[in-house]
Amino acid sequence: MIKDALVKVMAEDMSAIWTVLSGDEKRLIIDNFQIHHFKKNQIIYAEREDPEYIWCLLKGKAKLYKDGVGGRQQIVRLIRPVQYFGYRAYFAREPYVHTAAAMEPSTLGTIPMSVVKELIDGNRQVAWFFINELATNLGSSDTRIVNLTQKHIRGRLAEALMDLSEHYGYEDDGMTIRIYMAREDLANLSNMTTSNAIRTLTAFVNEHVIIVDGRQIKIINEPMLRKISKFG
Questions:
Q1: Which residue has the higher pLDDT, 148 or 66?
Q2: How many CB atoms lie within 10 A of CB 42?
Q3: What's the whole-model pTM score?
Q4: What is the b/e burial string over 150-172, where b = at least 16 CB atoms within 10 angstroms of the residue's CB?
Q5: How many other CB atoms are there within 10 angstroms of residue 202's CB atom?
């Protein structure tokens, strides 16, 4: 099971860390790799906990979020297979500053950060991998902060829908986003109240930009949604 999971990671992530590891380094990861299963909405790790592992989402979907004013959540990042997360706090020598949770039944793998440190000490290409990952995520976060604070709610929600489609793709019809999110999660992703998210979704439906069926969202006018995202 563990070997099969690692083969999946290697097959889907050949452009990243696996290509720079030696045979002995790969064996070290296999010997320390653990599989974990999480139910929908189950906490993976919590804010203020000490980081011990690097996490890799193998199957399912996950979110990173912070609790804000009045108990409202702000989703700061969505995780898709096969992505690594949960390691920044270890490098910063601080507890987690956000919470990670499964958005649907999910399978994850962990490697102790002590093993990651050993790999970095022995292979500078591994260090460059994490530098690149951290720098990329920082740039995305900077852009997201500006968009969440300066765009109108229509633009924020349109951007969230485009991000979801680019992050998780479409169903076989090529229009239905391959993730089914509660209105509250959409609101938390877009930095708005749930009622505003519902009203804005309804407006997009009335403007024939999307079709909503329960938690399924079908984009029927992508150019218009991109325009709203850009200028909203």
A1: 66
A2: 14
A3: 0.84
A4: ebebbbbbbbbbbbbbebeeeee
A5: 12
